[in-house]
Amino acid sequence: MSMSDSDTSSQGEYKNFRQISRDRLLYEMLRTAKRGDSRSTWKVLIMDKVTVKIMSCSCKMADITEEGVSLVEDIYKRRQPLPTMDAIYFIQPSKENVVMFLSDMSGRSPLYKRAFVFFSSSVPRELVSYIKRDTTVKSRMGALSEMNLEYFAIDSQGFITDDERALEELFGDEESSRKGDACLTVMATRIATVFASLREFPLVRYRAAKSLDPTTMTTFRDLIPTKLAAGVWNCLMKYKSSIENFPQTETCELLILDRSIDQIAPIIHEWTYDAMCHDLLNMEGNKYVHEVPSKTGGLPEKKEVLLEEHDPVWAELRHAHIADASERLHEKMTSFVSKNKAAQIHGSRDGGELSTRDLQKMVQALPQYSEQIDKLSLHVDIAAKINKIIREMGLKEVGQLEQDLVFGDAGTKEVINFLRTKPEVSRESKMRLLMIYAAIYPEKFEGDKIAKLMELARLPTEDMHAVYNMRLLEGTSDTKKSSSAFSLKFDVHKKKHAVRKDRTDEEAKWQLSRFYPIIEELIEKLCKGELPKNDYPCMNDPSPTFHGTSQAASAHTNQGPPAHSMRSRRTATWARPRNSDDGYSSDSILKHASSDFKKMGQRLFVFIVGGATRSELRVCHKLTTKLKREIVLGSSSLDDPPQFITKLKMLTAHELSLDDLQI
């Protein structure tokens, strides 16, 4: 059974990117092992370190159990023989994995009764022959299939190829085309499996390599999007002839970029709830350690929670500005108390307006303090912690200067003044400020201006590496061209550089919400048919029937209501409506999600080599609503500023490893 896009839409129910990935793993893989003469009720699921991560990104253990899996095993660990049970192997098509599988199932005493084998990507012919040569194993196999699903669905509209070393291997100062090519080959294979999985055939566009003049040599770094586009295209051509029901003409679009397109987005302070959690709190992935009051009145208990889309409060607030999120949490607490007589009696003793913290304590004291309120209480705690860090670290002033630099309202003079008058600002904030400065003024590397600023900031040597390594991410010519044009035209008037223009169609409702990632502009231009073909060429000429960009998309947007500020909207349309009574029901979130996707145009995929940011993921959610097209963000990794800066330091730190730097 193929859970393709056409399958789902024909039933009148639009499934988003992550839902399709989940359905394929559960129904196309696990459920098919129940068919035929396989009568065993429970099965063993065997995976390798890559496929176990693929599975955990899309499915929960309860989903897997429901499909008849009672045990999940690692192919490389010693396993107990279970000769009465069937096994499902979900593995990468490597020689090592195949050898392990054959050793499990061959001989007189195989570990399992029957084996259903599913490979995460295309299997080389020699490996298939190798398996078929063992006749005893062949007779014990219930299936041998290619799932072509080797990506990690980290969000309903986001995936990674999980290459933490991509930045180092592709942008490092010691260019190694052998290492770089190997990295891009794996990346291309994994990206292509996204389209195999969704049964989508994209129009592939990429950022072209440019040089200032014919004498400038094109480097490996300049050609990263070109090489990756060619790699993805080669895989897609194979799919066209080998995968049943794979589209023969374009059904969606793919735009391939790299990190040099926007050096500022991974470093600047992003002021949304999701980004602040991952930037300022010591989280491990999506895991947050929360202290809850002890039921016995003793010390608070530590509890691990996951901040994920299935939490309706998180789903509603994650893309909201931190000030907006705090305000809305206070309103939710107030609303609960106003509807609860016991809470009103409890709170009326002191009189006066109650803080969110007071409201939280009152709610926790109530007998009907439930799991739903527990969720709300968790987010009140997190928001309070973030706001405290913002105050203690003076981040509002840092953030203001960062945004003023980006929009050309501040320059060298303001940076010097800030560093001189704010010695108490943290070393990390000063480093990030100077990294943004270096991205805006790359020409300052030529003299000693940046070195003097780092001296003034008293940055240690390892932080200086991060600032200097911004040079390795310089765009091939866009920055240089614009900066030279600026200096010729505007120096007389002492104008400052601006690397972003204020968006006239949007009002910034909250302080420090002016900044937007460059991909927002690129996606909108692509959908209007305004993205220059010279700068972003196509791998394939679109067929005459393809209406992905200009006509269809602009017709879609023109028919809609007049443009209005998306930033000022209180909730995204897929989240809980603001005036509902409680907003804790996950059913209501799912209902809004599916109804929002019912009348969607063709999907648009944007892939960024070298790491994507939470601000870029937020933009994809926002533009999905605005442009009525599901926009899926892909990257080699999803990086928060601390991770990205560590990776940036690695570009010249050959003697160090990621383990030493503890990413």
UniProtKB/TrEMBL annotation:
Composition bias, Polar residues: 542-560
InterPro entries found in the cross-reference section: Sec-1-like_dom1, Sec-1-like_dom3a, Sec1-like, Sec1-like_dom2, Sec1-like_sf
SUPFAM superfamilies from the UniProt entry: Sec1/munc18-like (SM) proteins
Gene Ontology terms describing biological process: vesicle-mediated transport
Region of interest called Disordered, as start-end residue ranges on this chain: 540-587
Gene3D superfamilies: 1.25.40.60, 3.40.50.1910, 3.40.50.2060, Syntaxin Binding Protein 1, Chain A, domain 2 (3.90.830.10)
Family per record: Belongs to the STXBP/unc-18/SEC1 family.
Protein name as annotated: SNARE-interacting protein KEULE
Species of origin: Escallonia rubra
The organism's taxonomic lineage, starting at the top: Eukaryota, Viridiplantae, Streptophyta, Embryophyta, Tracheophyta
